[in-house]
Amino acid sequence: MKKRTLKRIASFTLSSMMTVSLLSGCGGGKQAESQPAAGEATTEQTKGEEKEEPYVVTMLTQGEQQEDLPRIMEKVNEILVRDLNMKLNLLVAPYGSINQQRQLMLTSGEPLDLVYLDASSAIGFMNNGQIIDLSDLIDKYGTNIKKYWGDEAKSANIGGFVFGVPNLNEVGNIPAIGMRKDIVEKYDIDVESIKSLEDLEPVLAMIKEKEPTMTPVHICADQPPISRQLSVIDPLIDGIAVLDNSGQDTTTIIPVTQSEAYKEKCELFHKWYQAGYINQDAATTTVQFESAFKAGSTFSAIMVWHPMSPKQFGGVDMAYAFLGEHRALSGATSNADYGIATNSQNPDKAMQLLDYLYGSEEVAQLLNWGEEGKDWVYVDKEQNVVSWPEGVDSNNATYHAQLSWALPNQFMASSWEGVWDPDVFEQMLKFNKEGKKSKGFGFAYNTEPVETELTALKNVQEKYRISLETGAVDPAEYLPQYEEALKQAGLDKLIEEKQKQFDEWLAAQ
C-alpha cells in the first residue's frame, strides 16, 4: 500500500473530532505497521508448549450481505490466527434489521463480543448492563486506536462510562440532493443554481412532466430522518427534544414540533407529495434510493454529502447540488462506535482484535473489497486506485461489501475507480476540520431518569414522524396532534431532564 495517506493521517490532529464512523481497506498484502502486543504475547506464551485454540471474536456490524463472505472470512482468519491467534466471526445485519438483531443478541446471552452501536442505542444498553465500560481496555490495548484518536479515544462516553470506540468517519455533512447526471445533462439543468429545496422545485416539476416514468424525488421510510439530513434541527440524539436551526444559535431545548424550520420542511414536502414529486409510497416503502436509482425509477434523492460520497449510486452517475452549509450536529458525532457486550467471554481479546482492525491494511482490504484478482485489481497502484477485474461488475460480483462506513478505520482504504478521487482521504481530513458545529456538538445524555417516558415518546414518534417527513400528511393537521400525543407521553419531563443535563454539560466545557 502507498504509505502517503497513512503518514498524513497519523500526523493529523483529531482534537476537532468527536465520535463518528467508517473503514475500508488497502491492498498490498502486508501486516499493519502498528499492531497490538496481543500477537506477540501469544507467540511468547506458546514457546515450548502447545498453542492454545484461537479465540473466536463474534462481531456484529451492518451492511449488505455478501454471497462469498465465507470465502473472505477464511482469508481474514488465516491472517488473524497468524498475528493474534484469534478468529473473527463477522455477522452482517441488513440495514433494516440491525436494531432487532442487536437487541436480541444482547438480551439472549448468546455469544457476542464486538457490537456496532450508535449513541442513542448505547445509552439504553449501558443502563441495562448489556455493554461494558471500555476505559481500562483502551488504556491497556488501544495502540492503534490512540494512534488515530489521541485524546479523543474515549470520547464516546456518557458520564465517564466509555460505551464504544468511535469509527473514523466524516464530522458532519452537507445537505444535498443527488440527481441522475444523465438526466441533468439531457435537460441542461444548472446544478450550481440549486442552493435550496425551493430552488429545486422547478426542476422537479419539469422532470414530472418530461419523464413520466420517473419519480422526481425518492424518499424511503427506512432512511435517516429528513430533518436530520437537511440539518433542520440538532436532534440531541432522540429527535424529540431538540435544538432548532441545527443548534447554531440557541441552547434552549424545545419539542421538535415547535421548530419553525421543521414545520417549514414538513409543509414543503406535503406540497411536493400532493404535486406528485415524491413517490406516493414514501411513508411505507423500504426501497432505498440506491435501488431506486438502479431500477431507473427516480431522478433524485435527498441525502448528505462529504468527500467520500460516491460518484455513483446503483451504477448511475450522480450530480450533487448542495442545499445548505456543512453542519456538525450532536448526533452526527456518534453514529457508529464499537462496544463490547457483557456477553463477551473474553473482553480483553475482543479489544485486542478491535485495535488490530484500526491498523491492519491487509484485513481492511479483504473485508471491504475482497481478494485481489478475484474481486478487485489495481488500476493505479501508485495512486492506490482499484476497480473490477475483467468480466466482473456490480451485477455479477459475489463479494463487494463496501463496508468503509461500517468498520473502524476508513483511512486504510483503496479508492475505487470512478467512485472516489485518489486523494479522497486527504479531502476527508480537510473536511473534518471545517463545518459549523452545533452548540450541542458532542453531547449525549443519560436516559435512565426518563426511560419510561422515552419509551412512550418513541412510540409516538414512530407513529407521526415518517408520515410528516415524507409529506404524506398535512402538517397543519398532524403537527398539533403529534405535539399533544408527545405531551401525553411525558414530553415535558424529557425536556426538563435533558435541559438540566445539557446545561451541566455546557458549564463543564
Automatic annotation (TrEMBL):
Stated name of the protein: Putative aldouronate transport system substrate-binding protein
Keyword Ribonucleoprotein attached: no
Keywords: Signal
Signal peptide: 1-23
Region (Disordered), start-end ranges: 29-51
Pfam families attached to this UniProt entry: DUF3502, SBP_bac_1
InterPro entries linked to this entry: Bact_solute-bd_prot1, DUF3502, SBP
Residue ranges constituting the DUF3502 domain according to the UniProt record: 441-507
Lineage: Bacteria, Bacillati, Bacillota, Clostridia, Lachnospirales
